[in-house]
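Crash report, auto-generated. Payload:
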Amino acid sequence: MDEVEFVSGETRIYAIVGHPIEQVRSPEMVTAELVKRGHNAILIPIDVLPVDFERTVGGLTRVQNLDGLIFTIPFKQRACALADELGRQARTVGAINAMGRDRNGKWFGDIFDGIGCLEAFRNHNLQFKNQRVMLIGAGGAGRAIGVAVAYEGPVAITIYDIDERRAAQLAETVATIDPKIRLSVRTPVVENIDILLNASPVGMLSDPRAPIDPPQIPSDVVVFDAIVKPEITKLLAIAQQSGCRTIFGREMMRGQIAKIVDYFEAPQAGARRSTDAH
Amino acid sequence: MDEVEFVSGETRIYAIVGHPIEQVRSPEMVTAELVKRGHNAILIPIDVLPVDFERTVGGLTRVQNLDGLIFTIPFKQRACALADELGRQARTVGAINAMGRDRNGKWFGDIFDGIGCLEAFRNHNLQFKNQRVMLIGAGGAGRAIGVAVAYEGPVAITIYDIDERRAAQLAETVATIDPKIRLSVRTPVVENIDILLNASPVGMLSDPRAPIDPPQIPSDVVVFDAIVKPEITKLLAIAQQSGCRTIFGREMMRGQIAKIVDYFEAPQAGARRSTDAH
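Recovered output after restart:
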């Protein structure tokens, strides 16, 4: 009898919840990581209309063989209410993108966008401690990255967002995390910084622009772009031509997936490890 | 980057809902049938506590990329209430084991245990029309098989169940389907019948017994056993030694899977095709 080998009655289920859902990459990538670690597990896409979110996902949290959830647009904020306990970064950001259940059935939620960015830097043996950071974009990803970076002890963070109110809000949040950080909200600069982070959507897909367009970036600046597609954005191309070290959106994604699967394996320990211990 | 190929954001989801769930075979087998037919689809196991059933499965029916559900023990009766429309056999049996959603979001429910049995006979070019049938077992599977057979125009059905009330209830139901069928409720016989059906659990797994234990079965009787494991039950072994034609539980399972996937592909047409058109 014909049978597939990648799913059985014993398979543990994980899901990514969003609307729309067709474009997400977590099913292929998180499933690969789970399988690589020896789990009989799969991460499936779940497309939920906003009007059905609480009811449907509340029901999913009661499924006995479902051990973890990832949240994407537009549910990262609303998902907070489904967790029994939130990690420190999730509380600060006001959003989660992953929830894991411990053996007692308790659901832990946390946000890994920023943690994925830190992880990408760590894999290059780079850190944010004592660095001067320019962050472009204070939306969902920018806010998560800004908060994660703030916990790392940088000396300065400059924030730019096309929506000035959003940039100011993130600056306020960062100030509550670590009052020693020198903060400014202004148009992007490439001088007198150590790290340039793009978390804005400018440069995504067929957008040929860079979020900042200097002829040259000082070659000692590390340049990161959260955008996954294309791999080499206009900003990263400028950085490469300037001789800068570059870090790609895919590295953040890979770092985030590893950290989320750690979290799924041990949500309580994972929450402490990823957000409280520095 | 490591990625698996069997699931993506575009994968359509199906699920089997039961408690417990580890032992079910639908994930491997239905997924194989879906993939064989060219669908980017997967059937996953969903373990739901009875107390959570309506809430959780009600939520699942609102998932936009979930197109079908299979129900197993102990939910086949309660699942009826989740369907917007029930097929004829489901209404008669009072249970469903599959639900499919049409393009307008309407959920159709029907029961395929009996239809799977008919399909197994059809694949042997055998029919129930004008046949004398002995049915052992009037529980969940027996009731579904008895109802499906009754719609096929047999001349006689004899029903045995260790619980006499249950046998009598099924006889009553069969009488409402086709008053021309000669009915009796009594201990099993192998004489003066054309088809012997076992839908009782006697003979399952390590149970060495047969539900009826004659030294010999007349060789012109067709013998079917709904049990899947072992493949050759004690009853089928006796039948083979007697020179009878035999039909296996796996053939019913295969028939049922094909019919359920037909139904998932076109629930409204499927409901008509499988239960109303004879």
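Post-recovery validation: The first strand of chain A starts at residue 12 and ends at 18.
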